[in-house]
Write a structure and sequence with these properties.
heterodimer, A: mainly alpha, ABC transporter involved in vitamin B12 uptake, BtuC, 2 domains, two-stranded antiparallel sheet, 73% helix, B: 506 residues, alpha/beta, Rossmann fold, six-stranded mixed β-sheet, 17 helices
Chain lengths: 395, 506
């Protein structure tokens, strides 16, 4: 058989995830009515998913490396409480937000680093280390936020939780993103062609590009009918983009996949396994810090039970998005879709005024069903395979 | 043999399709009572598919054709059905639980009970009896993980035979075994044969097939390529039937000019990290020159793999003496990163667990070691990575449909070429090969030997460890023989013979 370099076309799992999302949107729209697709509803959906989807992004790296972090909900709370306590002038330190915010994120990074060291060098399983962290950080949070620290309206950090990117700016951002995407797509395509690598057919390429631009511009035109893009959404997308680049375009990211896939083979390939694991936990800590700041901003302060169960939301989003708990598999884009699925379920059920207990039941069911579908598409039935999956050769 | 011997198990016109592939195409096959029937063919020829059909792994509605047991048509819907009919399938990969004891493994899923509870004493006693019966020297209460590969393999067979299986199917049982261990296995198989068990035996090692089998059937590309009693076959006709062409020489021979000493090991000793004073390697000294292939021969457990992993910065215990010199300078190899920095490359014996990340794509695996080479400003340049790696495809003859395929879905030979490829993106100085052709079909084997010879010509120093003595003999310029962690002797190529080596090794 002669070899022609080529890349795969359709990712069946992303497709199935997108179909699940669309099905849910249609369902909820039928339940809720026109309001479901209004600018306000969409803006709030994208806003409310921010905190734990940020966590889910960092979680993806940790899970890909073959570990898990159960402490992130508590870590978020601890950062939120610390930042609030630093800013609060009545009972707290009364520092400016410009000082407190980076410090808070740094606390997150340091604690993540510490947990990474315990996991990688002392070889305590990450499940145990971070289960411990879950309790320890929550305990400290209770001490720090004993007086329920509030943050005054005058502090700029509050705008992160309440303000929007105004309409005109939103359009500029959206159009710039589209142009940037187009430029990157074309540049990549041209380089591939120059290198003699088979590229997608033109129509497929165009559909992909146009779909992406339509999604961006459609989103912006909708949320502009309300107040513009929520600041939390912007932060979430920025964090996810950075994590995406780390996971896909750096050797560090690639090495995490190798470590999670086969730690011994990674070691024998000269990868410094321990350092990578520590770095993954540090990044997780930093993202928990960012999420903590956002949480604090949108609640204008902190409470003892901030971010409770968020570690589980984050894990759920990552897993729904196709991240394997065994390590070695998972993408940031998938996690984003997983976060969107979770957010859709949570918001949709708020609209339907179901009692709280039913909401929990449905959330759990969605997690299991989504992962079930994912596993079913991993070994697709023959008729589905015939449509989408290219035949593999026998050697 | 009296001619009209009844076939105990027969398949007729089996055709099995996988999506897009016809794995078996009208194959008929049978095995008789008290017979060892060898099934040979290159990787992907359909051997595994055939025995999985026999063993009930593929249920009866997924293929066409029929299976006859003692002359009656049977339909297996599961492995359980096949097992009930007396067919035991021993897979290439072991199906034992490493952290259970030998006795527990033998009786797994079928534990003897008293009053509803596991009868531990009864179990251990009957396991002991079985061990005696099969002449295995083992304490049945040891955890399986503490035993060597050979013992584990034999215990798997004991487990299968305990349930009075009348048909035993073995898929490459010796691929992980050294010669004397394989002999141990063969004597068990011959005993079973004498008792009337029908045995289907798959192997890549042709000499085994000739020594053991009564009949040989060859599959090629899912079709029957020949079948007959062992007396009708010669090595040449067999190879020809397997590959469909004549291989002029199985071992290509290259002479090359050797250069300066690339690696010198002086008085290297490694001590077991758990048992104080037990030496895994003792006073090992040798050297390799640029453009030279040094073979390391020895029985399994003699320290062959351990030498390589110590050189590569992953000693199996504590290095307690000696010195490693690269280009005449003493160096510290405290981790694989160090070793890679000094230009070492290591192709481990167990490519599934040590060589490859099966979930990563072919490209991802190829670029794993030298990923930094493709980074610009800290970011991977995908296109350059892709191009360099596809260059490897041509150079090594890797056959894969796409670069983005999971490496786990390639055949054994192609996987092994990927392991080679990941070290060759930058020319290594010293290449350590541990069983480089294990579990690889004969065509890929020749290709891998050619790759090794090419590297040798380019001046790479090479150390090769192999359980197949002919491979060591033919590939190496010099051979050192290990016995129980010590160097027992050294031969130049011209004086090395199988007998001479075995005498020193045993």
């Amino acid at each position: 058989m002669t070899f022609t370099p080529q890349r795969r076309r359709i990712d069946l799992r992303v497709l199935s995830m997108a179909l699940i999302l669309i099905a849910m949107w249609v369902f909820f729209c039928a339940q809720v009515g026109e309001f479901y697709f209004s600018g306000e509803s969409i803006a709030k959906l994208s806003r409310d998913m921010a905190t734990w989807t940020i966590l889910a992004g960092g979680m993806t790296l940790v899970i890909v490396s073959g570990n898990i972090d159960l402490s992130v909900g508590s870590l978020l709370a601890l950062v939120a409480a610390s930042v609030a306590a630093m800013i609060n002038s009545e009972y707290g330190l009364g520092w400016s937000a410009t000082m407190a915010v980076p410090l808070g994120i740094l606390i997150g990074g340091c604690l993540g680093f510490g947990q990474g060291v315990l996991t990688a060098y002392l070889r305590i399983p990450s499940f145990i280390v971070t289960l411990g962290g879950l309790f320890v950080f929550r305990g400290i949070t209770q001490k720090v936020s004993a007086f329920d620290p509030r943050v005054p309206d005058s502090s700029w950090v509050v705008t992160l939780g309440f303000e929007y990117v105004p309409q005109t700016h939103a359009w500029i951002v959206g159009i710039a993103a589209c142009i940037f995407a187009m430029a990157m797509f074309l540049y990549g395509r041209k380089r591939k062609q120059q290198a003699g690598i088979a590229v997608d057919p033109v129509h497929y390429f165009l559909v992909k590009l146009i779909l992406l631009c339509l999604l961006i511009l459609g989103f912006i035109s909708r949320v502009n009918q309300y107040k513009g893009i929520p600041n939390q959404t912007v932060i979430m997308i920025a964090v996810l983009l950075v994590l995406y680049i780390i996971s896909r375009r750096t050797s560090f990211g690639r090495h995490l996949y190798a470590i999670g896939g086969n730690v011994e083979a990674a070691r024998l390939s000269g990868i410094k396994v321990e350092k990578h694991v520590v770095a993954a936990f540090t990044i997780m800590g930093l993202t928990a810090g960012v999420a903590g700041v956002v949480w604090m901003a949108q609640n204008q302060g902190s409470t003892k039970n901030a971010g409770e169960f968020y570690e589980l939301y984050a894990i759920a989003a990552a897993v729904i998005g196709g991240t394997s708990l065994m390590g070695g598999r998972g993408t940031i884009f998938g996690t984003f879709l997983g976060g969107l699925v979770m957010a859709t379920v949570i918001q949709g059920m708020d609209y339907t005024n179901l009692e709280n207990w039913t909401q929990l039941v449905v959330r759990g069911a969605v997690l299991v069903i989504a992962v079930g579908i994912d596993i079913a598409t991993k070994t697709p039935p023959d008729w589905l395979r015939a449509i989408f999956v290219r035949r593999s050769p026998r050697n | 043999m009296a001619e009209p011997v009844m076939s105990i198990l027969e398949v007729r016109d089996i055709t099995k399709d996988f999506p897009g592939i016809r794995a078996l195409d009208g194959v008929s096959f049978d095995v008789r009572e008290g017979e060892i029937h060898a099934l040979v063919g290159e990787n992907g020829a359909g051997k595994s598919t055939l025995i999985k059909i026999l063993g009930g792994v593929y249920p009866a509605n997924q293929y066409s054709g029929e299976i006859l047991l003692n002359g009656h048509v049977v339909r297996f819907h599961s492995v359980r059905d096949a097992a009930k009919a007396g067919i035991a399938l021993i897979h290439q990969e072991q199906m034992l639980v490493k952290h259970l004891t030998v006795a527990e493994n033998i009786f797994l899923g079928d534990e003897p009970t008293r009053f509803g509870f596991v009868d531990w004493n009864g179990m251990i006693n009957s396991a002991r009896q079985l061990a005696d019966e099969f002449h295995i020297d083992v304490d049945v209460r040891t955890e399986l993980a503490h035993l060597g590969m050979a013992k584990q393999q034999i215990i798997e067979i004991v487990k299968a035979l305990r349930k009075t299986s009348t048909i035993l199917i073995l898929d490459e049982p010796t691929s992980a075994l050294a010669k004397h261990e394989a002999e141990q296995l063969f004597s068990i198989l011959r005993n079973q044969k004498a008792r009337g068990t029908a045995i289907v035996y798959i192997s890549h090692r042709l000499e085994e097939v000739f020594g053991l089998a009564d009949r040989i059937t060859v599959l090629r590309d899912g079709k029957l390529a020949g079948s007959g009693p062992v007396s009708e076959w010669t090595r040449e006709t067999l190879v020809k039937a397997m590959v469909g062409r004549e291989l002029r020489e199985v071992y290509p021979v290259t002479r090359s000019h050797t250069g300066a000493i690339a690696l010198e090991v002086q008085h290297l000793s490694v001590e077991d990290s758990e048992i104080k004073g037990r030496k895994i390697l003792e006073d090992i000294s040798f050297s390799v020159c640029e453009g030279e292939v040094l073979g390391i021969a020895g029985l399994m457990g003699a320290g062959r793999t351990e030498i390589l992993s110590t050189l590569f910065g992953k000693p199996p215990g504590i290095v307690c003496g000696g010195q490693i010199c690269i280009d005449g300078n003493p160096v510290q190899m405290s981790s694989p990163e160090d070793a890679i920095k000094y230009g070492l490359a290591f192709i481990p014996e167990d490519r599934m667990n040590l060589g490859l990340v099966l979930d990563l794509s072919v490209v991802g695996n190829l670029s794993l070691v030298h990923l930094k080479q493709f980074c610009k400003f800290g970011f991977i340049d995908n296109i350059e990575e892709f191009q360099k790696c596809s260059g490897m495809f041509g150079r090594l003859g890797i056959r894969s449909h796409s670069m983005d395929m999971r490496v786990g879905s390639l055949s054994g030979g192609n996987q092994q070429k990927v392991v080679f490829g990941k070290w060759l993106l930058r020319k290594p100085k010293l290449l350590l090969l541990d069983e480089p052709t294990r579990g690889v079909d004969i065509g890929a084997k020749v290709e891998i030997h050619n790759i090794i010879n090419d590297l040798k010509r380019e001046g790479v120093a090479i150390i090769i460890v192999s359980s197949e003595l002919p491979e060591v003999l033919e590939m190496s310029d010099r051979i050192i023989v290990l016995r129980r962690g010590r160097v027992a002797g050294e031969f130049p190529r011209s004086q090395a013979t199988q007998e001479g080596i075995m005498e020193l090794a045993a």
